[in-house]
User: What shape does this take?
Amino acid sequence: MSLLAAKTIGKKFGGVIALNDVSLNVEQGEIIGMIGPNGSGKTTFINNLSGLYAPTTGQFIFNGENITGLAAHVITGKGISRTFQNLRVFPNISVLENVLIGLHCRIDVSLWDVYFGFVKTRKIEKQAREKAMDVLAIADLASRKNDLAKNLPYGKQRLLEICRAIVSDPHLLLLDEPCAGMNPVEMDDLAKFIRILQKKGITVFVIEHNMRFIMSVAERIVVLANGSKFQEGTPAQIQNDKKVQAIYLGDEGEL
Amino acid sequence: MQNIEQRSDKHESTFNNIIKFKSLLENQVYKKIAYILLLLFSVFLPNIVNNMYYMGIINYMILYAILCMGLNLILGYTGLLSLGHAAFYGLGGYTTAILITRYDFGFLPCLILSGIIALLFGILLGLPTRKVRGDYFCLLTIAFGEIFRLVAQAWIDFTNGAMGIVGIPIPQIFGWSIRTETDFYYLGLILLTFTFITLSLLVNSKFGRAFIAIREDELAASVMGINTAVYKIIVFGIGCFYAGLAGSYLAVYQTTITPSNFRLEESCLMIIMVIVGGMGSLLAPIAGVVVMTIATEYFRDIAEYRMLIIGVIMVTVLLFRPQGIFGTSAFKS
Assistant: This one.
């Protein structure tokens, strides 16, 4: 059984059809990429998947469970984390606190425990901090744990956002254009980081415009165009596909 | 040339001293010692200040400190602007006044019930945060504050209208009857300590972090698994609970309660105190309370210009320290 099965997902905004019958499977442990021209519905797809929108038609089956249209915070609890295209770290709090907020749904403390069970609360808090520090150590951010998130360089903020998403041990991580605004060195770091995540057992779903990056990272690529699934295959297949070249570069015949 | 070097050395050493001082405060042991010293100082304060007039001012400061710390949870931590906080303060005040004068309740049950009733109404006003956001929510809170005041004024059978409830008896807790300014000071100090401890437990837990996440970026917070709708309701309820406690304290301290105690101006004053003191840090609003209370008392002779003076202080503070006197950097413009 695949980790995630999207079945005929459709999304309409009024009369605009943003997604039209997109079906795909994500297998456990793979790195899957999604590419497509601007406005092809890539971000809409993961917004639907992560619960920010509810799809108009179709179903998401995650771990054998129908998660279509659940609220975002519930879906996070079920093990799908994401990052955003336009970087959304919490700017005015420390790096460590950012990661601790990512751990929110795994900290089992009720309001009652906060006031009346502070031995338990303190123990759980301590474990949470250790866990957050472990994740920061993987991303080489441990030494900057007390810096405000907004004072980190851009590439590090991107890494921090991914740390915040993976600290809750998700089964599936959705990355929405993680390379946007990065320089080639930072991109290589990110590619390495994503492979580490894969080794840790996290399935990664990447949307990216940067072809060099996605071709080197992804094991399988899905191409979206005008809200529909256009092509699917290994990076080599996609690179040599005439139709995909056509949607990116235009038809030879049109020239 | 030498002169300049010396000066820069001196500058650097003061800078280092400030850093050292800050890191000293981060040390848990020193922090505890600082708290204990502060508590000791507070306990012996009435022995130092023998003037009843000054004790009265200090009591009002404590009252506003409780109010502002609760409001800071809503405004500074969660970023919800509530201009109806005086209504919850009033709900606490009227609950205590009515229960004590008409139903012969003891003070302690009144205090707890005042808090709980303010909490319930806080949850009620928190419900619309689901749909109504930002400025519109702020308007809603103003409306709630005004409705509360008008009901208190018009429902003469229950609240005695604009005349207010007078002759609230001397409160007693376990045989300790609270009469003098000093007694009220200790009662206030107990309430303030309670407020501080419960709030610091809350803000240092995952709940406090969730509130901050909502302030920083609500969408990202929901993707972190935070049920933002529920957390906003929780924070509203808890913030208002402290307003209820403060209202109860006001009722027994003033021995009268009138609707004019809970005007919109009062809500604005609390917000100004929180902004001047600094948002998003637990004790910072107290600085605002102290500055504003002293200023308004000092210029008592020209009381008509009170709002003007408050305005000048606020503008001055915000010009030089946009985040408030002790605020966190989140509010730097």
DSSP finds 14 helices and two strands in chain B. The radius of gyration of chain B is 21 Å. Chain B has two domains: 1-48, 52-263.
